[in-house]
């Protein structure tokens, strides 16, 4: 999965980009505590990383 596709999923679930640090984008949700970090741009994220990020975001 491309990082762009995962970022689109996060944004559709209500996560907002709060800051960018180098090649990492940091997202926060207005109702859920915590921050999710997505490496971007990445042409191919591993299945385990995608699953972990989706689980943190509550979209699994």
From TrEMBL:
State the similarity comment: Belongs to the HicA mRNA interferase family.
Q: What protein name applies here?
A: Type II toxin-antitoxin system HicA family toxin
| Species whose genome carries this gene | Halomonas binhaiensis
Q: What InterPro entries does its record include? A: HicA_mRNA_interferase (IPR012933), HicA_sf (IPR038570)
**Which terms does the record give in the GO molecular function aspect?**
endonuclease activity; hydrolase activity; mRNA binding
Entry-linked SUPFAM superfamilies: YcfA/nrd intein domain
What UniProt keywords are attached to this protein's entry?
Answer: Endonuclease, Hydrolase, Nuclease, RNA-binding, Stress response, Toxin-antitoxin system
Q: Which domain of life is it from?
A: Bacteria
């Amino acid at each position: 999965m491309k990082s762009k596709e995962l970022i689109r999923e996060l944004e559709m679930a209500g996560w907002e980009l709060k800051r960018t640090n180098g090649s990492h984008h940091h997202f926060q949700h207005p109702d859920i505590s915590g921050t999710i970090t997505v490496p971007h741009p990445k042409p191919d994220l591993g299945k385990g990383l995608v699953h972990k990020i989706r689980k943190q975001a509550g979209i699994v």
